[in-house]
Amino acid sequence: MPPDLTFERALRQRGCLTVAGVDEAGRGAWAGPVVAAVVVLPDLPDLPYVDSKTVPAVRRERLAAHVRATAAAWAVDEATVAEVDEMGPLRATHLAVHRAIAQLGVAPDAYVTDYLRLRFATLPQPEVVAPARADGLSLSVAAASLLAKTHRDARMRAAAVDWPTYGFERHMGYGVPAHRAALRRAGPCPWHRRSVRPVAEIAAASGAPRPDAKEGTA
Q1: Using one digit for the tens of pLDDT, what is the confidence trace for 32-70?
Q2: Which of 42, 67, 80, 114 keeps 20 to 30 A from 204, CA to CA?
Q3: Domains of the chain (ranges plus CATH)?
Q4: Of all helices (H) and strands (E), which one includes residue 180?
Q5: CA dist 164 → 58, 143, 179 (Å)
Q6: CA distances (Å), origin 25, targets 11, 53, 206, 214
Q7: Starting at the edge strand that comes first in sequence, how are the strands of the sheet with 34-40 ordered?
């Protein structure tokens, strides 16, 4: 079954007037930022089935534009490579999500996330429903996944212009064999996460000097 609004409608029936879907992209990558998106959809969204992981890139971009045009509210933000290295990918993901929420312009009463158990400093705490693989269940989460992935892909394509050796535009910083081979040849660049064991091991073995950063917030 395609994702729908079952979770969102159940939360509204419990008195949550504004329900947001949350998802991230890049948490398990070897390079680049962690990106989070938050989306509030209208009650009757004009949104086809979306799967950010399987649809072709051109269609993903069109769908992301449609989400931005039709969502009641949306926001995207990120945690940098340095922040991922400092605090780890899970805490960096939470940081990126809260940054996106701060930009949303509305204060949701509840969130549906892809197994991400959010915590808030404010009281009362918004309700959080966090089923596994929520991007295949919740239309709001699927929409957020689409925005997070397209935003991060654009960031990785931009990084590939400055560091073409690594093929970021093809694998988006994930640990595929071609990426590992490029790392072994050239050593890591500023967009690589030194806290990731394969990157750290290759950096130590290569002894390659770290190139100067061309973007201040990799």
Answers
A1: 999 999 999 988 777 665 666 777 788 889 999 999 999
A2: 80
A3: 6-158 (3.30.420.10), 164-205 (no CATH)
A4: helix 177-186
A5: 22, 30, 11
A6: 25, 10, 29, 23
A7: 73-79, 34-40, 19-25, 110-113, 127-129
Amino acid at 134: A
Query: Distance (Å, rounded) from C-alpha 60 to C-alpha 84?
Result: 26
At residue 129, φ and ψ (nearest 5 deg) are -110, 125
Look up residue 142 and give its amino acid.
A
Q: How many CA atoms lie within 13 A of 118 on its CB side?
A: 33
Residue with the bigger pLDDT between 206 and 117: it is 117
How far, in Å, CA of 84 to CA of 77, rounded? 14
Q: Across all residues in the chain, what is the average pLDDT?
A: 91
Tell me the per-residue pLDDT of 116-157, one tens digit each, with 9 for 90 and over.
999 998 888 999 999 999 999 999 999 999 999 999 999 999
CA atoms of 95 and 87, how far apart (whole Å): 10
Residue carrying structure tokens 């971009």: 61
